Amino acid sequence: MTDTMDLLAYEKQLWAQQIEFIAGIDEVGRGCLFGDVVAAAVILPRGFVLEGINDSKKLTEKKREQLYNQIVESAITYHISCVPSQVVDRLNIKQAARLAMRKAVEGLNIKPEHLLVDAETIDLPISQQAIIKGDASSQSIAAASILAKVTRDRLCKEEWDEQYPQYQLAKHKGYGTKLHNELILQHGPSPMHRKTFLKKLLGDELDQIWETLYAKTGD
């Protein structure tokens, strides 16, 4: 496990410059075939240390849930934002992820003085750093990663799986697993699948499938 104190290097440099409100920002769901891309922004108190925090992908589900609760209870402010699959298709996934992150920052109750962002820049007039593998390098970004990951997983298990049980979303969380691909081929895509992500899987049949789907749903 990464030493938590190693994850405070960026924050300590900013605190030394008397910058108090540092927001960590990250998103999840970028590579999914189904559903929203989810982003979180969080400002933690100066000097706060969250034991056991790490990149959300390296933690167990139980540990993520535990840390989620600690982050929510301890944060000065946080906000979670979702951008739906239709917007992903319209903008492309990179721009949709950036939009989700911007909306997460804009939703904070306190305006941050500086942003630490996982491998991205955000279209806001706020001082910021894009940090490669930031969720494994900064406690603030790791905390945002956990908030976003737990939120999206809960949507998959508690809302979307009930809405579209034929895709077994609770098992694969919308990623392009063998099971998910087989279920898409068996049932066709849902309105929440990302059309632009399914071209390789469905090929020339995609447009016809989509046309039939939306004729049935009336969307």
From TrEMBL:
Gene3D superfamilies: Ribonuclease H-like superfamily/Ribonuclease H. HAMAP family: RNase_HII_B. Manganese or magnesium. Binds 1 divalent metal ion per monomer in the absence of substrate. May bind a second metal ion after substrate binding. Belongs to the RNase HII family. This is Ribonuclease HII. It catalyses: Endonucleolytic cleavage to 5'-phosphomonoester. Its cofactor is Mn(2+); Mg(2+). The gene is rnhB. Endonuclease that specifically degrades the RNA of RNA-DNA hybrids. Its EC number is 3.1.26.4. CDD domains: RNase_HII_bacteria_HII_like. The keyword Metal-binding applies. It is an enzyme of class 3 (hydrolase). It is found in: Cytoplasm. Pfam families: RNase_HII. InterPro entries: RNase_HII, RNase_HII/HIII, RNase_HII/HIII_dom, RNaseH-like_sf, RNaseH_sf.
